[in-house]
Design brief:
The protein has about 200 residues and is an alpha+beta fold. Strands 3-2-1-4-5 form a five-stranded antiparallel beta sheet, with helices on one face. It is globular and about 55 Å long. The chain starts with a strand and ends with a helix.
Length: about 200
């Protein structure tokens, strides 16, 4: 099992990177969000990796951080979500947005990714809601509105309250981004609503 690659970046594109590790060039498929964080070709970089082995193929998937890799493993554990779809989701949603969309029941957020229709999006939320809610996805060191396991519960409550007011999970997550997760839930909701009002 290859956990990470650290070495000189030989090639990069929107969907893959090649890293030279001890004279061997490893090709890793990546989400476009990771591509945007890579340094210039020739510079040193690190990718956190997940290996997928099938009867006909061995593929390596690379991510800019451990949170993205954890989210990828959670997503690909859902029936119908293969590695390509997992990368597609991570290209449009960050790990904290994924967790907040799941906890808020916002399946529509996932349909922004190529290859994800309404039925698959609903399945993702349904199969992962308990894992996110019960903290089984606590390996996600969430940033922004859900920075740690305990505040993640407050963030989830705030998302649920905002969605009950008619906002989508994505809108709620955006409104909560940047708000101190240590605040009481009521204060988080008040500040989020203020932010939504200013944007409108």
């Amino acid at each position: 099992m290859i956990s990470c690659l650290t070495g000189k970046l030989l090639e990069k594109s929107a969907d893959y990177a090649v890293i030279d590790c001890g004279g061997v060039g490893y090709l890793a498929l990546i989400p476009s969000s990771t591509a945007g964080t890579l340094p210039a070709v020739g510079e040193k970089c690190t990718l956190y990796t997940s290996m997928n082995v099938t009867d006909s193929d061995i593929s390596l998937f690379g991510f800019a951080d451990k949170d993205s890799r954890t989210a990828f493993k959670l997503l690909t554990g859902v029936s119908g979500v293969g590695p390509k779809v997992g990368l597609s989701i991570l290209s449009v949603l960050s790990p904290d947005r994924i967790a907040l969309a799941i906890s808020g029941g916002d399946h529509k957020a996932f349909t922004a990714a190529n290859g994800v229709g309404p039925k698959l999006a609903q399945r993702i939320v349904l199969e992962l809601k308990d894992k996110v809610g019960k903290g089984l996805a606590a390996d996600l060191n969430l940033t922004g509105a859900a920075q740690a396991a305990a505040p993640a519960g407050s963030a989830a409550q705030a998302v649920a309250a905002l969605t009950s007011l008619g906002y989508t999970g994505t809108e709620a997550a955006q409104a909560l981004a940047g708000i101190d997760p240590a605040l009481p839930v009521q204060e988080m909701i008040r500040l989020a609503l203020q932010g939504i009002g200013k944007r409108r």
